[in-house]
Amino acid sequence: MLVATPIGNLGDLSPRALAAIRDADVVLCEDSRVTGGLLARQSIAATMIPLHDHNEAAQAPRLVERMKAGERFVLVSDAGTPLVSDPGYRLVRAAIDAGVTISAVPGPNAAVMALSLSGLPPHPFLFLGFLPARGGPRTAELKRLRGIEHAGLSATLVFYEAPHRLAEALAAMAEGLGPDRPAAVARELTKRFEEVRRGSLGSLAAHYATVEARGEICIVVGPAPEEAAAGADEVDARLRAAMAGGMTLRDAAASVAEATGLKRRDVYRRALELGDQS
Ligand code: SAM
Q: Does residue 30 have its Cβ closer than 6 Å to ligand 1?
């Protein structure tokens, strides 16, 4: 049983979650000190086994064997919904592959709460979890994302971010996705200092360049504007202009791929089609 736990406010631990934990033979958790603290407040003494990125793959087959033998397991994260930027996927996959029936007690999730409070279109939305921590890979990831938007994706984007990286992440997003994109920074959800700050990526980046962010944070970014998502027309226009300017088909495709963030192979294929049509 996958059991969601609070993301800050202990009042969000549901009666069903408590019952599932009480009924379990074993509680799989990220950090037994965190989960132990949560359970102690409910006067529950549980057998806990830590499950994290470093041991999940090795533990999964053994745990599935124990499930098949009839032991009742629950999986919890330190906070929120298991598997969502947290351990559990490999175990769930192994259990499904072994024909073990799994279920869940749904509950708190920071991404969905931030999305619903953001004031941005709630669907479609794309949950991206944490961007790479280092500047180079983060810029590359945002460029890739922008390329997918150029190809037609129009969805609200939801990210997790650490407070000490918020300012640089927002600056990179403003640069990579566009400073005018509407966005929201949701902080300390369900806690005493809960705050949702809404504005353009550029204005949020400017704000957090001077104000230190504390606590836990989600960033929500509104969908790419229509003209960015239109994609195909823009690619065609750029290709035609490049080839009319004397570029070879291959060079035109390379230059348009670079400008739009699209895959060179895809742009080249389109350039060939346009070449055939002329
Ligand atoms: N599984 C969790 C969930 O369902 O939300 C997320 C786990 S992930 C390791 C932790 C990240 O979630 C934090 O770094 C932060 O970005 C986000 N987060 C968790 N709790 C939050 C809260 N109370 N307010 C805002 N963001 C939160």
A: no
